[in-house]
Amino acid sequence: MKRIRQGDEVVIITGKDKGRRGNVVRIYDDDRVLVEGINIARKHQKPNPNAGVPGGIIEKEMPLDISNVMIYNPAADKGDRVGIRHLADGRKVRYFKSNNEVLDS
């Protein structure tokens, strides 16, 4: 079970976007995450008339390493570490380490 999933709200803990929050759009196999509106890079793109792609400088979200994000805990109003716990009915759930609040319902 992964500690960070698609759709989680995360806070960036290092880099140029430190302190900003966003939702995880995608998780890659090499432990990188794409966060909505974070880590924007300017990319020079050649036009491709066959695909209908215009040329110019575009802004694109780039993936971050998963170690540079923490799940946002609304109760503590900051990023928090996440653990995995087995419930009595046999389910595995994620919980915040600071206040033991269950993240999954």
Task: Considering the chains and any ligands shown, give keywords for the structure.
about 100 residues, mainly beta, SH3 type barrels, six-stranded antiparallel sheet, two-stranded antiparallel sheet, about 0% helix
What is the gist of this entry?
This protein is mainly β and 105 residues long. It has no helices and ten strands.
Q: Please report the total strand number as a whole number.
A: 10
Low-confidence stretches are: none
Globally, the shape reads elongated
C-alpha-based Rg, rounded: 17 Å
Strand content: 35-45%
Placed side by side, the strands forming the largest sheet appear as: 6-3-2-1-7-8
Please work out how many helical segments DSSP would assign.
0
Q: How do the SSEs run, as a string of H and E? A: EEEEEEEEEE
Q: Round the mean pLDDT to the nearest integer and report it.
A: 94
| The top level CATH class name of one domain | Mainly Beta
What's the architecture of one domain, going by CATH?
Roll
Please characterize this protein's 3D structure.
The protein is mainly β. The protein has a domain at 9-76: SH3 type barrels, CATH 2.30.30. It is 0% helix and 45% strand. It is built from no helices and 10 strands. The strands form 3 sheets. Strands 6-3-2-1-7-8 form a 6-stranded antiparallel β-sheet, with no helix packed on it. A two-stranded antiparallel ribbon has the order 4-5. A hairpin with a 4-residue loop joins strand 7 and strand 8. The two termini are 15 Å apart. The relative contact order is 0.21. The model has no long low-confidence stretch (mean pLDDT 94).
